[in-house]
Structure formats: C-alpha cells, structure tokens
Amino acid sequence: LTSHPHWMKDALLDAVAALPKVCEHIEVPVQAGDDEVLALMRRGYTVADYRQLVARIRERIPGVSIATDIIVGFPGETEAQFQHTYDLLAELRLDKAHIARYSSRPLTLATRRYEDSLPHEEKERRRRLLDELQGEIAAELNAPLVGQTVEVLVEGKQARRERWYGRTRTDRLVFFADDADWLGRMASVKVTWAGPWSLVGEVVA
Fold it and tell me: CB neighbours of 139 closer than 8 A, spacing ≥ 6?
C-alpha cells in the first residue's frame, strides 16, 4: 500500500489494523527530510508532519512495517539539507527505504523551474550514504527474527539455487529450500539467518 502522506487518515490505518486480509505493511514516501526541499517539491507537508504520521501508524497498527521513498540531489539541495534527510532516516528507523537520485523529467514542474546542477557523482555519494545507513537499520530490525517462525506467501523459485522465495506479511523477502511445490501457497518458515535485505529459513511442518 503506497500513499501520499495526506491520504493516510486514521480510518485507513484502523482498517489495515482490523482486516485480516490486509497485511501490516505501509509505504508512505517522505522524499526528503528538509522542509525547504519539501516545499520546492510541492509535497504539502513538513518533516514534523511526517514524523507524527509515522508515530500514528505505529500506534494504530501493531507490528507494522513502514517503507519510504527518498530522492537525493533535488535541484538546489545543499549538504546541510541532505544531512537533515540522513538524520531523519536514522531517527525513524523505517523497515525499508527506496532511495533514488534526482533526474530531470520532461514537462515536470521541477524541470521547468529548476536547474539540475548537482553533479551525478555527488548525487551518487548521497544515495550511497543513505543506502548504507538503511542497510544497517534493516539488519538490526531483522536480527531478532532469527529463531522465529514467519508466514510466507510463496511467489516463485530460484532456478540457480533451487530455493523458494516469498514475502512475509510485513513485506520481508524470505528464501527456503524444500522439495515440495510451494508456488502460490502459504508456508510457515523458521528463520535461520537474517540480513538487511532478506531472510533465510526452513519449512516448519
């Protein structure tokens, strides 16, 4: 479920919490952790608004995982403004962060109004710093899952390594090896290894 922060009303959050068919995972893009950059992006909210939204989501949906999207190198983004984004990501400790470098898109307001003056190398440096930070956060969040049994909806099988893979209710990628045909089925998997981007386990009878 991906929504603009303005659409994340309490009624929607309560529905996610109450309905068994809806998984406890929400993606709510912040895009930047600096109010001036958010204003240039015309996002319509502040960092404080986003921080309060994350707190509301966690309060209303027990065990929720939250993912976000971030753009680095928006036209005019200073080093200090980027640091604000870095600090916000470190503070909120979200489960996932999809991080992209800004690139000009034809006919967009940003392309018409602002010059894309930040060098590609600097954008990549900022992206890499956020990616490394998120990797550390995700590894710490996933580590306690070792030894636990998780429910996995199996999506497919890796031909090369002959491992099944699927997602938990909180959108964590899980791999396991088993001779049975698990495609499209629910598997109970005991986690034996946890990394920042995936889990490995074994099927529990």
Answer: 194, 195, 196
SS (HEC) of 113-174 = HCCCCCCHHHHHHHHHHHHHHHHHHHHHHHHHHCCCEEEEEEEEEECCCCEEEEECCCCCEE
CA dihedral sign, ordered 158, 159, 164, 167: positive
Taking a C-beta distance cutoff of 8 angstroms, is the pair 127, 114 a contact?
no
CA angle in degrees (0–180, nearest 5) for 74-121-123 = 25
Q: CA quadruple 54, 83, 67, 44: dihedral positive or negative?
A: positive
The reported pLDDT for the residue numbered 87 is: 98
The verdict on pTM exceeding 0.85 is yes
Cβ(60)–Cβ(9) below 8 Å: no
Q: CA neighbours within 13 Å on the CB side: how many for 154?
A: 21
**Spatial separation of the C-alpha atoms in residues 84 and 32, rounded to whole Å:** 8
| Separation of alpha carbons 158 and 177, rounded Å | 10
| Residues contacting residue 186 through CB under 8 Å, at least 6 positions apart | 151, 152, 153, 154
Q: Which of 165, 176, 174 is nearest to 145 (CA)?
A: 174
Q: What is the pLDDT of residues 117-149, one digit of tens each?
A: 899 999 999 999 999 999 999 999 999 999 999
